[in-house]
Amino acid sequence: MMPFVVTFAAMSFLSGPIYGRIGGKAAISLGALAMAAGPLLLSTIHVGANYGSLVAGLVVTGAGVGIFYGAVTTEGVTAVDHSRTSLAGAIIRLPEAVGGAVGLAVATLIFDISSSRDLELRAPEESVPLDEGQKEVVQGVLAGTDDSQEVFAETAKAVGNEMEALVRETFVTGLQAGFRYVAAVAAVGLVVALLFIKKQAPDGESTPTA
């Protein structure tokens, strides 16, 4: 996650100057675009991918998050009377916190459903005979539980080397689905920004661009 964290931190410092140069509407749209493009790049991951193939997606996502959240906060608190800036900041912060938790839960659910469905489809094709108990072990490995890792090692010996390849394939399928969901949500944010955020006119008044 280091490429994401470093880029996010750097762009957080730069989001103010970017906002001042191109305006809130453009800054928020740019951030949302990067937040959609980054996960889309990450969704191209495949079984043979190495760490280097993830860097571009992490950097683009980090840049988007850094620009987006800074610009959204600035746009929100400057759109109201000065006496209500604290209230505006709190209102903005609440959906950010709740949305992050809900978004993670939904992305995890999509990963779980996609990987489990892929496991059901691939097991017969790969000629890996898995009973219901073994499927639960594989799903536990996909979820990252320690107990399942130990049981999986023994199960793999009994079933054969094909089982490890099966886990890799289903894990990647789940990741791809999760990243595509994140990209889709960010794309919706981009559309909302383009359609509903007003552009600041030279005299300081807000005028709709649509």
Please describe what this structure looks like.
It is a single chain. This protein is mainly α and 210 residues long. The chain has a single domain, classed as MFS general substrate transporter like domains (Growth Hormone, Chain: A), CATH 1.20.1250.20. The chain contains seven helices and two strands, in the order H-H-H-H-H-H-H-E-E. Strands 1-2 form a two-stranded antiparallel ribbon. A hairpin with a 5-residue loop joins strand 1 (199-200) and strand 2 (206-207). Helix 5 crosses helix 6 (146-159). The chain is elongated, with a radius of gyration of 22 Å. The model has no long low-confidence stretch (mean pLDDT 84).
Layout of secondary structure:
Blueprint lengths: L1 H21 L1 H19 L9 H27 L6 H41 L6 H12 L2 H14 L2 H35 L2 E2 L5 E2 L3
Antiparallel strand pairs: 1-2
Number of domains: 1
**Major sheet size, sense and barrel closure:** 2 strands, antiparallel
Top-tier CATH class: Mainly Alpha
User: Per CATH, which architecture?
Assistant: Up-down Bundle
Integer average pLDDT: 84
**Helix fraction bin:** over 70%
Radius of gyration, taken over Cα atoms and rounded to an integer in Å: 22 Å
SS class: mainly alpha
The CATH topology comes to Growth Hormone, Chain: A
Q: What fraction of the residues are assigned to beta strands by DSSP?
A: under 5%
- Give the overall shape, derived from the CA principal axes: elongated
CATH superfamily: MFS general substrate transporter like domains
Output the number of helix runs.
7
- Output the helix-strand order: HHHHHHHEE
Please report the total strand number as a whole number: 2
Strand order in the largest sheet: 1-2
Task: Flag low-confidence runs.
Answer: none
Q: Distance between termini? A: 38 Å
